[in-house]
Amino acid sequence: MDLSVLIFLTSGLFLGWALGANDAANVFGTAVGTRMVRFSTAAIICSIFVILGAVNSGAGAAHTLGKLGAIDALSGAFMAAFSAALAVYSMTKAGLPVSTTQAIVGGIIGWNLFSGTPTDHGTLIKILSTWIVCPLLAAGISIILFKATTAVLKRANLHLLRTDSYTRIGLLLAGAFGAYSLGANNIGNVMGVFIPASPFTDFNVLGLFTLSSIQQLFLLGAIAIAVGVMIYSKRVMQTVGGGLMPLSPVAAWVVVVSHSLVLFLFASQGLESFLISHGLPTIPLVPVSSSQAVVGAVMGIAILKGGRGIRWRVLGRIGAGWVVTPIIAGLVCFVGLFFLQNVFDQKVHAGGPGEEPMAMVKYASPEIKTPNVAMRSQ
Amino acid sequence: MELTKRISLFGRTRALEKEIDDFLDKLSQGSLLFKIAIRVYLNDGCTPDFETKLHDVNKMESDADHLRRAIETKLYAQTLIPESRGDVLGLIENLDKLLNLYEGSLWAFSIEKPDIPEEFHHDFENLTDMSVQAAESLVLASRAFFRNPDAVGDHNHKVMFFEKEADKVSSKLKHAIFGSDLHLSRKTHLRNFVEHIDNVADLAEDIADRLAIYTIKRTI
After folding, report:
1. What distance separates the 2 farthest-apart alpha carbons in chain B?
2. What is the DSSP letter of A197?
3. Smallest Cβ distance to A160: which of B2, B146, B220?
4. Residue B3, H or E segment
């Protein structure tokens, strides 16, 4: 295994850590913010299920991201991931839930601009459209779910304490589902640009199952996400949990489920094949922003309540963060690539000058459509 | 381990639900005992039967205190209903004050032994009925708060009604007392007892007002 590959992978791990610190807040933020689930419980469940989701179902959305810009040099991938991580980290410091997807898209476009590679407009539009569709879809789902849940609760006439217990269990289950979906959908942001350079080979675990090289790469990224969740996600969780709008525990559950469903819809290869087999229109497998999903879901509840209680200032800051994040990531990537190429003499794209640590396979090669297909670095 | 904890949480929740129900039962029984005790006093004076009723109300108040402390401790120790915890504690503590009023009022009858002329007995009984009915409606409103928030308004409406009626009876009684030929010291003495009983309805109304707010908060 080439040591330089591992060094370059650190920026992916940094991005994973930043994603864990920021996006995990979307999964359990409302549960922790309403004091229904302790932070430690949330962090443990979130970490476990992010890893499971990433390793088991992470390939679908990762594939689309690769089409946006086929980063063909490891140093370039390093800088794209690093710039995205830096953008997300700076927003995390500000306590704002941002989109890791937007950050990595910003980073890839930065690389495209630097290397003179044309950006695949079709894919870009597909991704950009999800930035609008995702919060709208989350808002729609949360409105329907909230109405249905309150109607069921009204009929059930449960004791306040019983409702509380059920809501806690519901929040934990929905959170686990959300974390799984987050891992499945967003691992592409973290490790997608490194797939062509995966230094791993297929690995058989005690004769029970085989981890492909991509799954091992995703496992590494997911562990980085889990570390981010554990040590740095509390602050953003509090912003999501109570900063945007005060939520009741039941509303918190609705938000988590809506967010998780949206992420799942945009990551599920199973659902895609089901829709195809029934001749129905498919949902694109795109890494969507869990932040946009959760903010959309909270807004759905707010709309139901006639817009009362929304803290517009916080919403404005979050919205500004979404605009600034890809711009920061793009700029940092562009400038960083310049330094990598001209100061550190690294080859940041296939046609550029400098040294290349190792050759990369073409990113969007058909072999990587599923994680089970072994892919060796060449 | 987390799963075991969660499963046992249902057991603990059920136990706490039962304690809250028991607390409300004590309050309801305390109200009925108070009503019987006043009737016994008006008919027979401070007899051993009255003292027994006073003792029963004391025990009820003491049991309710234990339950209140247990409920408060569990709500906080198990970090249950974080959104409504403060409201539930406020409700339970205020309801407990009703039992304190019953106890204090009956102690005053036992210690001061007011001599209530026959002509005022009917109004005293009427006032007690209205006050106790206000408290009873409040118990129903409180039960509804836990299980069926939509019904709280219906019960609260009755609390308001009985409080108004109690006020009318109490004003009428005070007019009658101060319009009588009794000595001023007896008039003021009797007035204190009218207020003792009327205070029950007033407190029930105050608690019902707060309960209405707690209910609105629950439905947001």
Report:
1. 76
2. G
3. B146
4. helix B2-44
The fourth-level CATH superfamily of domain B11-219 is: Phosphate transport system protein phou homolog 2; domain 2 (1.20.58.220)
Please, are residues B8 and B74 in contact by the beta-carbon 8 Å criterion?
no
CA separation for the pair B198, B162 (Å, rounded): 11
Q: Which residues contact B25 (CB under 8 A, 6 or more apart)?
A: none
Give Rg (Cα) of chain A.
Answer: 20
**Residue showing tokens 């007392």:** B177
Q: Is B175 exposed, middle or buried (0-12, 13-18, 19+ CB in 10 A)?
A: exposed
Q: How many CA atoms lie within 13 A of A122 on its CB side?
A: 4
Q: Which residue in this structure is represented by tokens 């836990």?
A: B146
- ipTM > 0.85 (yes/no): no
CB contact B5 to A (< 8 Å)? no
pLDDT in tens, chain B (220 residues): 445 544 555 778 888 999 999 999 999 999 999 999 999 999 999 999 999 999 999 999 999 999 999 999 988 887 788 878 889 999 999 999 999 999 999 999 999 999 999 999 999 999 999 999 999 999 999 999 998 888 999 999 999 999 999 999 999 999 999 999 999 999 999 999 999 999 999 999 999 999 999 998 876 6
Percent of chain A residues past pLDDT 70, beyond the cut: 84
- Locate all alpha helices (DSSP H) within chain A, ordered by sequence: 3-33, 39-57, 59-68, 74-93, 100-115, 121-156, 160-191, 213-232, 234-238, 249-265, 269-277, 290-304, 312-342
**Which residue's entry shows tokens 């063909």?**
A72
In A, which residues are within 8 Å of B1 by CB distance? none
Q: Please, are residues A266 and A283 in contact by the beta-carbon 8 Å criterion? A: yes
CA A234 vs CA A31, A37, A254: distances in Å = 12, 12, 21
C-alpha to C-alpha distance for A114 and A126, rounded to whole angstroms? 22
CB nearest B17 (choices: A38, A159, A172): A159
Chains A and B form CB pairs within 8 A to the count of 49
Phi, psi of A13 (to 5 degrees): -65, -35
Tell me whether residues A248 and B220 touch, CB distance under 8 A.
yes
Q: Are the CB atoms for A67 and A195 separated by under 8 Å?
A: no
Interchain CB distance below 8 Å, B13 and A34: no
Strand A203-205 relative to strand A209-211, pairing: antiparallel
Cβ contact, residue pair A161, B220, below 8 Å: no
Q: What are phi and psi of A205, to 5 degrees?
A: -95, 105
- Confirm or reject contact between A313 and chain B (CB < 8 A): no
